Task: structure prediction
Amino acid sequence: MKTTIAPLSRTLLIVCSAIALVSSCTINPPPRGPVTAVPERLFLQQVTDTGAVIKWRGEPRRVCLFEDAEKSRCFLGEVSEGFHREATITGLSPDTEYRYRLDNDSDPDFRFRTAPRRGELPAAGAINLWILGDSGTAGQEGDDEGTHSHAGEARAVMEGYRSFIDLFPGKRADLMLLLGDNAYMEGTDRQWQRAVFDLYQPMIFQVALWPTIGNHEMGAQTSTLRGKTVTYPGISTSSDPDSYITLDNRSPRRMPYLDIFTLPTRGEAGGVPSGTEQYYAFDYGNLHVVSLDSQLSMRDPAQRATMKRWLEADLQSNDQPWTVVIFHHPPYSKSSHDSDSDAVARLHGIDDPMVELRREFTGIFEDYGVDLAYSGHSHAYERSWYLNGHRGDSGNFDLRLHAEVDGEGNPVTGRPGDPYFQISPSTGRDDRVVYTVAGSAGMVNTGEGNLDHPAHAVQPADPDQRHGLAELGSVHLEVTEGRLSARFIDTDGRVLDQVILRK
Amino acid sequence: MTATPIRTLIRVFTAALCLLLACSPVAAHPGIDKTVDHYSHLLLHNPGDVAARLARVSLFLARGKLAAAGADLDYLESHSPHINTGLLRGRIALKSGQSGEAAVQFSRCLDRFPGESRCYRLRSRARLALGDEQGALDDLFSAVEFRQPFDPGLIVETAELAGDMGYTAKALELIDNAQQAEGVIPALQLHTIQLLRNQGRPADALARLNGLLAPTPANPAWLFLKAELFLELGQGTGSLEALAAARRALRHRKPTPWKQDQLDSIQRLETLIQTCVPAASCRLDTGWTAP
Result:
């Protein structure tokens, strides 16, 4: 029965939101976001050890930064794509809190903290990241009226994270990673507003957002059904960011994602210049983060080859102790998306990047010492064993060959008391990666999948002890000198899985 | 009428329609054949549904039913002239190995949609498969001209073909122009270095490599490349210094498979240089690569 209901709910999700979109646009104007004393949109980008980019929309023309009680500097907000203003702040000190204010004196003050010096930890002793995959359900039209089946679920995930932080205030996030599909269903500017910029206030005034492109960031394809126009979103197989279309505007145009975010193309935040905002890298203290483009660049052989060259150059130049890679399409999943090649083929191109990533990129991650890889796309939580060399389908997975195992041939779990070591005891090298699918920050849906990919760790918290958790939640990653600790946090703030990687 | 009853009506209607549509095979992805049946049913009732027909084309293509896909495209061409069927037909032909037909279709695309960068790029691939290198190169340059936003992959693809055809200056100019606008991009600059090496210009290649190393002095792979270029210049001492720098850069790196490969390559090159007499002026042929 379970496998019948799951695709049904997915269908409902897609169709209902499309119809709700039509109805809300024509009859019932959607409500605006919460009324605040701040501009419609204010957020931070590229917070490094020496600078930051502050972006906003609205009347204010400049932003002022208060270095202490006496000293302030003001920066004009340059008008940028998508009617944003952005100010590039330079000359800041590492690991230092700054107060800032947009030019209206009546506006409140906001604060952010610069990154620690490259290669170092902050004075507080740890770097904390909040990682959200497929959180975009709050952006679906009609959610305020309760017509959307996932209304409030992204908020519940956020409340779960807040509950966790209430218990552990020292683990408050320093930065947020978005794993794609963060603004359902089509990644319109308005959906970004509701799903991210309205929902995650005031966090996004304080920490930088670092995103990656998901399939729902690339708009929709449409069809007419019994006289009603419905949307089939997230199924673009184009490699061209200018081929974005939506239900209400079928003229191909540039995807809003690229107008909204200001991402490093020239190595501004560390890492090697990529020349494109579609994939990039940055440093934060002793952590190196790489964001790959699995939705567009992965689909064209020439673009993919260039991204791969860049990735290798970036990882060759990277001497940071810890490295995390993010991209949307998971190489290993048995949930709402199935990474096996026959299942991918059945979707006529939509999920091809899952196979391409596995075949062409996982080897690079292993060769260059990537520690953790995060994806979304499948709407559950799946976290792998400590993997090496698994390029085939799930049926080809060999626990003894591809996972770290103990002396008795049992897989090391990575949990407290049984951690993974960056340098694998079995090979003496840093050649293993933990892959996590964290696509349940806005909904849970395992589709036709049974959470049974053998490359993923068995989850004791799952009622059926499967290789994943059908639970809403997000990931909190804590980086210290000798340890990475990643926790999957549910809507009550409980830690349902924890994986530890030690030096 | 207030908004609330309207909203209620919409909810009821939506719920009913959702239940109806929940049986639709489209979103559940049960398999291509059933989905084709679904679209066929739609088209039976509404032959003018462009999106449904386009979707069916892609499904036929995935199933290898080229004739059926072609029939749908014929229909679209006669009824929906705004649809870029040339691009679709070209892709179908290219995928099925019919490069000649693909080139014709992409030309049709460009006749109807001048400046369509994708059609230039794909026609270039078709022409290349047909052995028309010059035509392919011209198309790629046109694709670059019309492409927005900047696409490093397209620049590399174009420069690679230009280089392969012996138009090194043209390839270098293309990349340099791109980098002038976008800043130095290692994936592009490394390509120029290879082009210059192939041309027997290691000094020029070294100058560009030094530009890459300036902001990233501890990239062991680039330091190793520097050692190779020194050898091509007959400067064994410089080569050994670069190898020593590469070793130093690797010293504090984690023990990855790549690090071991680098150390092995450094060891082999150092050994090779030691066999030269005198080692200080050891020279290797241009284009030499690590054993």
Observations:
- The two ends of chain B are 82 Å apart (CA to CA).
